[in-house]
Design goal:
GO molecular function, one term: DNA-binding transcription factor activity
Protein name: DNA-binding MarR family transcriptional regulator
Pfam families: MarR_2
Number of strands: 3
CATH topology: Arc Repressor Mutant, subunit A
Strand order of the largest sheet: 1-3-2
CATH architecture: Orthogonal Bundle
Order of helices and strands: HHEHHEEH
CATH superfamily: Winged helix-like DNA-binding domain superfamily/Winged helix DNA-binding domain
Largest sheet: 3 strands, antiparallel
Keywords: DNA-binding
Helix content: 40-55%
């Protein structure tokens, strides 16, 4: 006997998800997970943990500057402050980052990449970019609603 499923009201008056919507969502999730697996395996092959690569990328990716605060990194990495401090400690111990006093605020600390951290990014990031290019279509989020038909 089939179990009855309650249809929950959709936000903004949208129609309930169709079978095709679920299939598109599943394909997209698979593509994201495939990319993440590629990333995890690639950085490990180069002697880093995925978390260290994410940290390096978060620092280098700060708009307009070459450093970040621990608070900014915690936000970017979606980690708690104390977890980010521990990650920075481990990365510093591995020679990937260093802490530098903020010249404008003696209480603040900047986290910057070391030469080794820069080199690791210069090797790993092009590999990630190339993989994203190969997966571009699969990593494009599905289109929903009226936009899905190309209108």
């Amino acid at each position: 006997m089939e179990e009855a499923v309650e249809v929950v009201a959709q936000p903004d008056g949208e129609a309930p998800m169709s079978k095709e919507d679920f299939e598109a969502l599943a394909r997209f999730r698979f593509a994201v997970r495939s990319y993440l697996r590629f990333s995890e395996e690639t950085v490990r092959e180069h002697g880093l943990t995925p978390q260290h690569y994410q940290l390096l990328l978060a620092i280098k990716g700060v708009p307009g500057r070459e450093w970040a605060t621990v608070g900014e990194l915690a936000d970017q990495l979606q980690l708690r402050h104390h977890s980010t401090v521990e990650l920075v400690d481990r990365a510093q111990g591995n020679g990937l980052v260093q802490r530098v006093a903020d010249p404008d605020d003696g209480r603040a600390v900047r986290v910057v990449l070391t030469d080794r951290g820069q080199r690791m990014l210069s090797v790993l990031s092009p590999l990630h970019r190339d993989q994203m290019r190969r997966m571009a279509q699969a990593l494009t989020p599905p289109r929903w609603g009226p936009d899905a038909a190309g209108t």
